[in-house]
Amino acid sequence: MTLQARYARDRLVEISIILLTLLVVVPLLIIIVYVIMNGFSALNLSFFTEELGSPARAMQGRPAGLMHSIIGTIVIDLVALMMAVPFGIATGIMMSEYHEHPFSPVARLMTSTLNGMPAVLMGLLAYALVVKNTGGFSALAGSVALAFVMVPIIARTTESVLRITPWSLREAGLALGLPRWKVTMSLVLPAARAGVITGILIAFARAAGEAAPLLLTSFGNNYFSIDLTSPMDTLPQRLYSLAISPYRQWHSMGWGGAIILLLFVMITFYVGRVVIRKLEKYTNS
Amino acid sequence: MSSVEQGQAVQSAPAYHTNDRHPAPERISGEAPRMQTDNLTVRYGVSTFGIRDVSMPVFDRRITALIGPSGCGKSTFLRALNRMHDLGADIEVSGAAYLDGENIYQPGVDPVVVRRRVGMVFQKPTPFPTKSIYENVCTGLRLAGIRRKSVLDEAVQKALSDAVLWDEVKDRLKSPGGSLSGGQQQRLCIARALAVEPEVLLMDEPTSSLDPNATMRIEQLIQQLKQQVTIVIVTHNMQQAKRVSDYTAFFYVGEMVELAPTPEIFSSPKQPRTAEYLHGTFS
Ligand SMILES: Nc1ncnc2c1ncn2[C@@H]1O[C@H](COP(=O)(O)OP(=O)(O)OP(=O)(O)O)[C@@H](O)[C@H]1O
Ligand SMILES: [Mg+2]
Question: Which of A52, B118, B186, B200 has the fewest CB atoms within 10 Å distance of its CB?
Fold first, then answer.
């Protein structure tokens, strides 16, 4: 092959990679621009300081907002995260570090099943477990449903990052006379922390966008509530109900809410990136 | 290879050799074994032997060098002495290894306790990458229950000085272990192993990544340690084996061919295979 032909081929591959990347990035940009165009006008001060109230409120032009949904999302997602992280990491450790343990294949089967399950089923699961037994919709039930979404994601990423930490690290710890659990907790897990945190962020972002599991659990609330035992509002579920409502003012608030949800996810990843970079700087400096 | 066949037709009995089921320590005058293996065999999977029926003593507070061609089972043997094979999937250990007369492979023996008494420095440097230099050395001490900062500080300084690293790191004890150069990392690992004051120290080519100066100082350290510690050292450097060790064991294709006092094995090896290897490496 001539040199020129090789250059041409190089160029061809490069161009197709760029085109394929654009194919992914362009729709994303379109979504973002579209959401911002539609929702920006709804973002005024009362959007962040007021609760939604009845439809009449928005129709009559009285101040209404999604403050209660924003706070509800943060509360429900954080509670879910607190429940999911220990289980997710523990399951990941079980699958990676104790793969000879009889429970390990069971854990693997369970996480892959949960992973493939539609999110609405997580809602049903939490409905059966929590709502049925406590006698009503509650924020807590919503957190449980979202925790079901998060656990398999955290477990699988934890497992895979633990597996790629070098075996020699474990041996070095064992050779010092560290017991196995200590090697896992104080050497292997910290060495894999950037990956584990990434997994937690992905799980968090994924759960933050889910509406389906929340419809049957935290249910939604037009008014501000911080009580975990009663219904609470969340952005994804609120977007859904605003979108299917017959009121024009509510539609535009829905677009505004979508901007906030996008920002929420983006900020999550940004903060995560910064944290991870800090951690990696320490290890490599 | 014809030399192997020759080797199997043993003319004169070696001091110790494979399949010698009850090697009598008195045949090497006046030495007491700290460890003793009995037909120790390690298999990787069903077909690969790492080592095969190795029976040899490790004498108390002496330095034993393990020599032999690459892949002959030196590391495998070393790792069998503190049960490092335990977690390897598909690795099967049979036979016995005694530490002060107790078989460490006996049911009921806690490998964690064995490893606290029998320390190890690996062929490749393995610092704990997320822990600081200070913490790297401290980890084992904390495990032993030492909490007092002053005691820890002192022990860390001593271990790092012994491992010829103190001067280079004394101003950066808080930086991560992974930030050191390869040779520095290896010395950090030596310091880490020394800090817990093991009774037996297994060293797998500890100086292969060090410059001549550091190598010399580590060799001096090993000589000093001999006062308290029993040392087994793997080396590809015959000069090093000659310089530091009291006994030398020659391994070949998974078997321990010959163990003898170092001057003897280098001047008059009893096994033809040993002689062949030594001549091969020297000429
Ligand atoms: N984890 C493993 N899985 C399978 N085979 C192995 C494994 N480790 C070692 N072996 C095999 O066991 C034999 C002995 O290996 P070992 O590492 O003990 O040699 P060595 O004498 O230390 O060599 P070197 O001087 O190169 O370090 C070799 O044939 C090697 O291929
Ligand atoms: Mg080796």
Answer: B200
Which of A162, A176, A188 should we substitute to test contact with B (largest number of B Cβ atoms within 10 Å)? A176
The tens digit of pLDDT for each residue in A196-246 reads: 999 999 999 999 999 999 999 999 999 999 999 999 999 999 999 999 999
Closest-CA distance, B173 to chain A, in angstroms, reads 13
Nearest 5°: CA angle at A174, between A173 and A177? 100
The pLDDT score that the predictor gives to residue B280 is 82
Domain boundary among B198, B229, B249: B198
Q: How far is the CA of B100 from the centre of ligand 2 (A)?
A: 26
Residue of A nearest to B120 (CA): A175
Same domain, B173 and B161: yes
What residues contact residue A237 under an 8 Å CB cut-off, 6+ apart?
Answer: A211, A214, A215, A218, A219, A220
Per residue in B6-23, pLDDT (tens digit) is 333 333 333 444 444 444
B143 in Cβ contact with A176 (< 8 Å): yes
Q: Are residues B165 and B244 in the same domain?
A: no
**Inter-chain contacts counted by CB atoms under 8 A, chains A and B:** 77
Is the minimum distance from the CB of B44 to ligand 1 under 6 angstroms? yes
- Ligand lying nearest the CA atom of residue B73: 1
Residue B176 belongs to a domain: yes
Of the residues B198, B225, B255, the one at which a domain ends: B198
Neighboring chain B residues of A165 at a CB cutoff of 8 Å: none
The answer to whether B35 and B49 are in contact (CB under 8 A) is: no
How many domains are contained in chain B? 2
What would the pLDDT profile of A20-59 be if each residue is shown by its tens digit?
999 999 999 999 999 999 999 999 999 999 999 998 888 8
Q: How large is the ipTM? A: 0.83
Q: Which residues of A touch B116 (CB under 8 A)?
A: 176-177
pLDDT in tens, B69-125: 999 999 999 999 999 999 888 899 999 999 999 999 999 999 999 999 999 999 889
Q: CA B78, CA B282: separation in Å to the nearest integer?
A: 25
